[in-house]
Amino acid sequence: MAELLQSVLNTLDDQSAGAAAEGIHQPVQSFLNYIDGKWMPCQSGRTFNNTNPADTSEVIGKFQASGPADAEAAVSAAEKAFTAWRTLAIGKRAKILNDAALYLEQNADQFAEELTREEGKAFSQAKDEFLRSAQTFRFYATEAQTYGGETYPQDDPNMHVFSHREPLGVVTVISPWNFPASIPARKLAPALMTGNTVVFKPSSDAPLSGLRLVEALDKAGLPPGVVNCVTGRAGDVGPVITTSNTIRAISFTGSTSAGALIHRSVHLTTRLQMELGGKNPLIVMEDADIDLAVDLAIKGGFSLTGQACTGTSRILVVPAVRQVFTEKLLKRVAALKIGSGMTPGMDLGPLATEKQLQTVLDYIAIGRTEARLLCGGERLSGPEYDRGYYVSPAVFTDVTNDMRIAQEEIFGPVLAIIEVADFDDALEKANDTEYGLSAAIVTMNPRYMHRFTNEIQAGTVKINRTTTGNLVNAPFGGLKHSSTSTFRESGRAGLEFFTHIKTVYRGV
Ligand code: NAP
């Protein structure tokens, strides 16, 4: 693509020169920041490499190692663009989002392959992610057009009282690497449709997919400055885009620790929406369809190599079915195919980053001292695996709730089986965590379903469904340390965060 992110440089850099010289990979492309409608290098001229977690000899691209000055330029461009954008006809804003959605759909195969190469997930999941991002753009293009205020009955016949929704101003969007397209899409679309301008920082571990979203908006005719994207380390870019006086709100998805840090550093008046970590339970009751329970454990625990915030990490199972469940689970785990996301039929890819690999291996080592490892947990070797961050899926049993592997977010292919006495015990243990993102139960008993719905401390409640997954048109978010629980994302609820309300009393 000639105009790809404008001046893509097609250069070799030092770190990739070896691989390219061996003829393994194509020359490395450079990707630019997007500020005030222009693709530009960062002011220091420094870049960083992003590599393929399935084969770390492949450099996906060089990205701008932006600093505070670039972040400030992005914030000022967004501030300058705000008045014109908020007053642009909403139908015109919607057209831009719909056109951007079309661009994402038309380029879904290419973008999905890039996403697989930068993050490691299966190509089919990467493609779904871009199509879902397009769906999100379209959803908000329509939904926001009916999102307004209310009128209020009152006693004065010569007065009209109504509420009026307005955009906040310049908002910051910060996203993680595990869904590097769909998470920023569900923040950008409602922010833009409600008339805000945006500074967007994608994850340094998967920046390309976020840049593709921005490219789609640029191609669709987004006016300069309405979205500005800077790549770079959180420590270099973060302070400006979170604490500048111009920033009215921050929509952040990432770890609880980073969220807490940002939360402590922002101004009193900065509105926050934070979706954070999880430690999601799947309860298996005595009347469960065991094959379904196993299927949900596999999908919830190991799809995306366990790197979903809503991924299943604890399985709470009653004694009556513990053995049969465990046996069937182990059989299914043994059959899982591990390989690069581009390998047809693969079930598990690599971990996304070296840091994540180390975290997972560390927790497996901790788990070995606390509980009993039934399978997996090995770093894989061999020609297919040596250059990637591959770990075999691990299942621990005899886990108790006081253990670290039962309490701390691992974010990898590790399942902990915890025996529970009965439903009450399951519920108590499921709730015995600092997190509250997603929770599931497998049962046919309506009493369990009812109590689970009412008493589980989680923002997403699943019955006979996997802990993972959420709809574009339904609210999403966690409780406890999984979220600030201030505003929900997704669905119509996702629009609320990006507007404030004025109440107008108009007399005649
Ligand atoms: P992370 O380390 O917290 O980073 C998330 C994003 O925040 C990245 O773009 C990161 O930039 C940036 N960041 C970190 N510290 C910052 C700071 N002080 N100021 C400004 N920006 C900052 O999380 P991750 O490792 O990318 O993602 C995995 C985590 O996200 C897991 O805990 C997972 O549960 C959570 N997650 C939650 C949800 C949800 O909806 N609840 C969804 C997906 C993931 P750099 O990349 O430059 O460090």
Descriptors:
single chain, 508 residues, alpha/beta, Aldehyde Dehydrogenase, Chain A, domain 1, Aldehyde Dehydrogenase, Chain A, domain 2, 2 domains, seven-stranded mixed beta sheet, five-stranded parallel beta sheet, disordered N terminus, binds NADP nicotinamide-adenine-dinucleotide phosphate
Give an overview of the whole structure.
The protein folds into 2 domains: 2-12 and 33-276 and 483-504, Aldehyde Dehydrogenase, Chain A, domain 1 (3-Layer(aba) Sandwich); 280-471, Aldehyde Dehydrogenase, Chain A, domain 2, CATH 3.40.309. 39% of the residues lie in helices and 21% in strands. It is built from 16 helices and 21 strands. The chain has helices at 14-21, 68-87, 90-106, 108-119, 123-143, 182-193, 207-219, 234-243, 256-265, 290-302, 319-334, 354-370, 404-407, 423-431, 446-455, 493-496, and strands at 30-31, 33-35, 38-40, 47-52, 55-64, 159-167, 170-174, 197-201, 227-229, 247-253, 271-275, 280-284, 312-317, 372-375, 394-397, 414-419, 435-436, 438-442, 460-463, 479-480, 499-507. The model is unreliable at 1-24 (pLDDT under 50). NADP nicotinamide-adenine-dinucleotide phosphate (NAP) binds next to helix 8 and helix 9.
Q: Assign the CATH architecture of the largest domain.
A: 3-Layer(aba) Sandwich
Number of domain units = 2
Radius of gyration of CA atoms, rounded to a whole number = 24 Å
Kindly provide the name of the CATH class of the largest domain. Alpha Beta
Regions with little confidence, pLDDT below 50 for 5+ residues: 1-24
Backbone shape: globular
Strand content: 15-25%
Separation of termini? Answer: 59 Å
Fourth-level CATH superfamily of the largest domain: Aldehyde Dehydrogenase, Chain A, domain 1
The CATH topology of the largest domain, please? Aldehyde Dehydrogenase, Chain A, domain 1
Tally of DSSP β-strands:
21
- Distinct ligands: NADP nicotinamide-adenine-dinucleotide phosphate
Average of per-residue pLDDT values: 95
How is the main sheet built?
7 strands, mixed
Overall SS class: alpha/beta
